[in-house]
Amino acid sequence: MVEIRRVNFLAARFVAGNTAEEALDAVHRLNEVGLKASLDVLGEETRSLEQAQAAVREYSQLLGWIGASGLDCNVSVKLTQLGLSLGDGPARDNLLKILDAAAKHGNFVRIDMEGSAYTQRTLDLFHGVFESRKNVGVVIQAYLRRSASDVKELNRAGARVRLCKGAYKEPPSVAFQEKEEVNRSYDALALELLERGNYPGFATHDDARIEAILAAAAGRGIPNDRFEFQMLYGVRKPRWTDLKSRGFNVRIYVPYGTHWLPYYYRRIRERKENLIFALRSVLGR
Ligand code: FDA
Fold first, then answer.
1. Choice from 232, 243, 252, 274 to test ligand 1 binding pocket (greatest atom count within 8 A of CB)
2. Which of 36, 37, 56 is nearest to 46 (CA)?
3. Three-state secondary structure call for residue 74
4. Domain limits for position 110
């Protein structure tokens, strides 16, 4: 028990709390300084229908609370949390329930992108529901070799895309392995989304990527309200307010809940220093 609390304390940098109440408080504080948010109920690779249905209930309740409080906040969901590993049918039905709960409050749902084993199924499911529900968007990972053609198809459909580099360990057959290649891919996809996308969300903390987007938008006369930047709760906070004060939309991805371990592990993988900070805190140094 002590161990769990300790690790939980370590994850607290990246996770807004165990409960929706704590997470909504965090969103309120972000909104106060003009930052938008996307709430994520932590959970993935759900193995039972009951767990997937519990996630639907949590998201539906959350969307009600967001609506009632008037917060500037949408939600992000993972399809494996909604039952994708049990089959496309349950994941689709559960997603539709969340989309309808969001629509009641004029809100929007982003489907996070998970490991490459799920990419095609996630995109198929997205395109299927997008035909009848427009309050949904998806994520593209720049490290995947296939992403240029996926972005073109999503732009043609008029879909809202969040572009990120990609956080899962993928083999060379599907993903670029070198940082430079991923960055080149990110810049090219960002340009495509700026020119032909529907309010893209640029999810990155990488200054070079951000400045390339700003230069491309300025060079093409694309107004600030046609795109947004997105960053993770607990990562590069001064950059959030810097971009906001320069007149850009910034959204912070705010996860909460008790299933924080895989999310925390991905944050450690992105930046090894996070592990050193974590170990120092445990050792009390
Ligand atoms: P990069 O990793 O090169 O980092 C640039 C700089 O940012 C670093 O030098 C450091 O200063 C800082 N930084 C980055 N990560 C940090 C960390 N963990 N701790 C501290 N500092 C850090 N991935 C995915 O596969 N599917 C998804 O759906 C999403 N969704 C998503 C939403 C949002 C809003 C963000 C910001 C990111 C995601 N990601 C994601 C994660 C993304 O794919 C990627 O792993 C991280 O954003 C890190 O990549 P950067 O673009 O920040 O660049």
1. 232
2. 56
3. strand
4. 2-283
Count, in order, helices (H) and strands (E) of the chain: 11, 8
DSSP per-residue string spanning 149-191 = HHHHHHHHHT-EEEEE---S---TTTB--SHHHHHHHHHHHHH
Q: Whole-angstrom Cα distance, residue 187 to residue 66?
A: 33
125-147 residue pLDDT tens: 999 999 999 999 999 999 999 99
Any residues with Cβ below 6 Å from ligand 1, and which? 112-113, 139, 141, 164-168, 203-206, 230-232, 235-236, 253, 267, 270-271, 274
Count the Cβ atoms, other than its own, within 10 Å of residue 282.
Answer: 13
Q: Give the chain's domain count.
A: 1
DSSP 8-40: HHHHTTT---SSHHHHHHHHHHHHHTT-EEEEE
For the stretch 227-275, pLDDT in tens is 999 999 999 999 999 999 999 999 999 999 999 999 998 999 888 777 7
Catalytic residue among 162, 209, 251, 267: 162
- pLDDT tens column, 3-52: 345 447 778 899 999 999 999 999 999 999 999 999 999 999 999 999 99
User: What is the whole-number distance in angstroms between the Cα of residue 235 and the centre of ligand 1?
Assistant: 8
Active site residue 242: no
Interval 95-105 mean pLDDT? 98
Kindly report the CATH number assigned to the domain that includes residue 104: 3.20.20.220
Check: CB of residue 47 under 8 Å from CB of residue 82. no
pTM confidence score: 0.95
Provide the Cα torsion 55, 94, 129, 38; round to 10°. -10
